[in-house]
Amino acid sequence: MSIVTTPFMQQAAVVSKGVGLPSLPIAEYPGVPMTDGPEAVARKVEALLPQIIAGLAGARDVARAARWRRSRSTSTNIYGATACP
After folding, report:
1. Is 82 part of any domain?
2. Cα separation of 83 and 78, whole Å?
3. For residue range 11-50, what is the model confidence (pLDDT) as tens digits?
4. How many CA atoms lie within 13 A of 16 on its CB side?
5. What is the domain count for the chain?
6. Assigned domain for 56 exists
7. What's the whole-model pTM score?
8. Can you count the helices (H) and strands (E) in the chain?
9. How far apart are CA 62 and CA 16, in angstroms?
10. Which residues neighbour 68 within 8 Å (Cβ) at sequence distance 6 or greater?
11. Residues of the domain holding 27
């Protein structure tokens, strides 16, 4: 899960693919927090919470699915024996 400001959303998508995490959940902070006052930051962060929760829940579900697939995948060697990776 990553939180990225609006100007860097495209870069975040490219970088996440580049580091092998193409489905990394990214929540967008609208605008730039350095130019927002304390009240605006608080309001925008509160508005981000649904994206963050969905991203974390989705990341957990993706990781769980990957573990399940690894535990179920098998391969057969040249002797016909089955092994789990």
Report:
1. no
2. 11
3. 999 999 999 988 889 999 999 999 999 999 999 999 999 9
4. 17
5. 1
6. yes
7. 0.64
8. 2, 4
9. 15
10. none
11. 2-73
For 80, the token pair is 């016909």
Mean pLDDT (the chain, rounded): 82
Contact 56, 26 (CB under 8 A): no
Q: Is residue 81 part of a domain?
A: no
CA–CA dist 21, 11 (Å, integer): 13
Please indicate, yes or no, if residue 84 is contained in any of the structural domains: no
Query: How far apart are the C-alpha atoms of 27 and 41, rounded to whole Å?
Result: 15
Q: Which two tokens stand for residue 40?
A: 């605006």
- Please give the C-alpha separations between residue 67 and each of 7, 11, 19, 35, 48, in angstroms, as whole numbers: 34, 29, 20, 42, 29
Tokens 């959303």, located at residue: 9
Contacts of residue 78, defined as CB under 8 A and 6 or more positions apart, other chains included, come to none
